[in-house]
Structures are given as C-alpha cells and as structure tokens.
TrEMBL record:
Stearoyl-CoA desaturase that utilizes O(2) and electrons from reduced cytochrome b5 to introduce the first double bond into saturated fatty acyl-CoA substrates. It is an enzyme of class 1 (oxidoreductase). Residues 1-27 are annotated as: Disordered. Expected to bind 2 Fe(2+) ions per subunit. It catalyses: octadecanoyl-CoA + 2 Fe(II)-[cytochrome b5] + O2 + 2 H(+) = (9Z)-octadecenoyl-CoA + 2 Fe(III)-[cytochrome b5] + 2 H2O. It is a multi-pass membrane protein. Belongs to the fatty acid desaturase type 1 family. The chain crosses the membrane at residues 54-75, 82-102, 114-136, 197-218. Its EC number is 1.14.19.1. Residues 347-427 form the Cytochrome b5 heme-binding domain. Its main location: membrane. Keywords: Electron transport, Fatty acid biosynthesis, Fatty acid metabolism, Heme, Iron, Lipid biosynthesis, Lipid metabolism, Membrane, Metal-binding, Oxidoreductase, Transmembrane, Transmembrane helix, Transport. This is Acyl-CoA desaturase. The lineage of its organism: Eukaryota, Fungi, Dikarya, Ascomycota, Saccharomycotina.
Amino acid sequence: MASTTSASAPESEIRKRVPIPPADPVLPPPPVLKPNYVHISEQPYTLANWYKHINWLNVVLIIIIPVAGCTAAVFTPLCTKTAVWAFFYYAMTGMSITAGYHRLWAHRSYNAKLPLRIVLAAFGGGAVEGSIRWWAAGHRVHHRYTDTDRDPYNVRRGLLYSHLGWMVFVKNPKKAGRVDISDLNADPVVRWQHRNYVLVLVVMAFLFPMCVAGLGWGDWKGGLFWAGIARMTVVHHATFCVNSLAHWIGDQPFDDRRSPRDHVLTALVTFGEGYHNFHHEFPSDYRNAIIWYQYDPTKWTIWLMKKIGLASDLKTFSQNAIEQGIVQQRQKKLDKWRSRLNWGVPLEQLPVIEFEEFQEQAKERALVLIAGVVHDVTNFVESHPGGKALIQSGIGKDATAVFNGGVYEHSNAAHNLLATMRVGVIRGGMEVEIWKQAHREHKDTVIAQDSEENAIVRAGFQPTRINAPVMSAGAA
Ligand SMILES: [Zn+2]
Ligand SMILES: [Zn+2]
C-alpha cells in the first residue's frame, strides 16, 4: 500500500495543522461546500426574516394605499358629479381588465385595432394590477396549471390566498409555471406599457381621475380619493374575486374535475367573468356567458367594439362542443347517482341452479321464477299491490307470462323492484334463453355501461321484461 508524507507524520503534528480533524487524517479536509441557496419562500418564518417573506411593493399597492385612500375618502364629501365620474371610471378601468388584459391579451379571444389596444392598455393600467405582460403571463399559467402548486392563485391554498395572499407573499420564481408569451412581446402596446408601467400607473390611477374632477368641477380631493383610490380598491377586489369567488361558489355544468365555477353573483361583481366554469373549458371564447340573459357586459362591450369596427375575429367554440361538455358532465352526475342505487345483484354474479332445486327451495321460502331469474319475494308477499293471493300463486312456478301481461302488465318500477329480489338463475331454462335473446336484440342499451363500468339498465329493458312478440313471433 502506497504511503504519503502526511500519512507518515506524527499524529500530534497533524492535529496542530488541522484544528478540526477530518474523518480520515490521511486525506485533505473536504472542501467546504457553499450551502445550497434556499429561497426565502421555502425558509420557515422567524422573527429575523418574516419581513423578507412579504412583497412590500404589492402590500403598498393593494393594502396600504387602498386603506389610507379609502379612509381619506370617508372624510371627503362625495358630490354627485364625482360619484358619477368615479362609477364611470370604475367601469372603464374594470372593463379594460376584463375585455383587455383578460380576454384580449391573456386569451386572444378577438383582435383589437391599435386605438382600442391603446385605450385598454391605458385604462387597464389605471386599475393598478400590474402590466399587461405580467398579468396575462400569470393568467396563462393559472389556466395551464389550475389548482396545482404552479397555479399562481391556487384556490386549494385557501380562499384568502387566492384572493389576496398570493400577491402579499414572496414566491420562488423557479417554482412558477412557464408559458409562451411571444405574442405579447410582439405587441408594441404591451411592450411600451410594460416598460413605462410606473408612469402609466401614477397617471391613470391617480392623476387622471383627479384632474378630470378637479378641472371639470373643482373637486380635486374627491377626484383623487373617490375616483382614484376608492375606485381602484373596488376594481381590485372585483378582479380578485375571479381568482377566489369564481373558484369557490357556483355550479360546474361543463366539468367538475377542477375548481372553476359559474355563479351569477360572481358575474355581477366581475363584469361577467363569473361564468368561470365555462371560461376554463372554453378559454379562447370571447364570451363567458353563453345564454342571452346571463350578465356578461364584457362580452357585450367586445361585440359593440366589433360593430364600430375596432374589434374583429371574435372567437367562439361551436355549440356542438359546448353541448358535448354539458352532456358529459350531466352523464357523470347521473352515473354517480345511479351507482348509489340498488339495481339488484348483477345476473352474472348470481348462482346458477337447476329447476328442480328451485322448486325444492320454494317450499321453504317464497321463490318466484320470472324470465329465468329466481326472485325471493318472501318479504314482499304481504305488500304486493296486486294482492297476496296472486303473488302466492306464482311461488315455486315460472311466472314469466303472468308477470309480463298474462294477468297484469307490470310497471317499469315493478321490474326494478323485482330486480332487487334476485337470488339465482335457472340453468338452461327456456326463459333464460328468452332474456339472452332480449340481451342480443337490445345489446346497445342493455349492456351499456356507465363511466364506472356498471351496467346501465334502461327503463323497459330489464331482463325480467319479456315482450309479447317473443312468444308469438313464429306462430303467425
Ligand atoms: Zn380561473
Ligand atoms: Zn382566463
């Protein structure tokens, strides 16, 4: 074995040179590795680092300015003109987010001419929700990774998180989902607005509404606090509701695998963005509501823009695709409902017995044979709607003909009820052959299965139902 000079040096000398001895004094001490950088969002909260977890710029923009401004607004008299202006500007800036940031830039659900794009970019900037580029990219990520850790406003982390929390806490950019935004980068309006966002924000959110009220009717303070900050706060929460409320309350007529929901209340506060289950299924459709009476002012505005020549190529999904979604979702719900009901033991799981054995066992309990299937009606004899005597006359016998119209043509409900009393199948009985034939004749319906692979038994196609022509077909 080869030896080194250090290996041959006395042990005490090594200790002097290396204050902390490595595991093997023969080898040089291992290089001190720089500890892996752990992003702040993955570090636990401590008294020393809690403030690093907070995105302070966002806190100022979405909490501190709104709270301070709204408090100031409360102490500022609201004159009618300012109130009308604030409401109008609220609609303008809110709609620029829904029709512009969302449906135009994030989803490209229509094309807009340059003047319309400039207006939407300017007023959208006045909503103080970030630049188009940032907003639309994040929203595309939300659609791509809905309800997962990569979804920036993942509602699975709680309603408050999806509403506001996601902007308050610092996130690891490496963990964010990625999407293509080359089309956004190619739009000069988007590029300009992104580069000059601070200017756009200050002018459009605060100075412009203040100057309109100030120069128009001398209400500078009301213009700033009511039309500026209070209005901005309302727009904020209206938009935030799409991320929170629209993933929380309402129906899921198109697909229920993920959280988006349709609700008129959410639509009312979000300029029509509340039909969010539809929107996540058909994101590039310029509509969110598809029925004429549903509240979707953003859709109406885009339509109006088309009429005046500022918008074109309004995209819609085909009615066929939309109705397919509705049918499949309803089918899924029906299947779930069906699976909760008792349809009787499946025929293939029933024991096969000889006819003689059936007769023998019928002496001990009330067994009735119908269409080759043995039913135990012991607990039903007393409550038979047609009377005790009639049902008793069938015990131990083949009551197929009697049950299927010989005495009374039993209802669909009666066949369903009978199925829950099945206990066996007769080997090779004639009626067994009959229901096998019935299976063959109606194979599309009788052997159809739901999404959980349970047999679907449609009304009128129960195996105990023997249609009259089966017996008389050959006689004619
Ligand atoms: Zn969503
Ligand atoms: Zn969307």
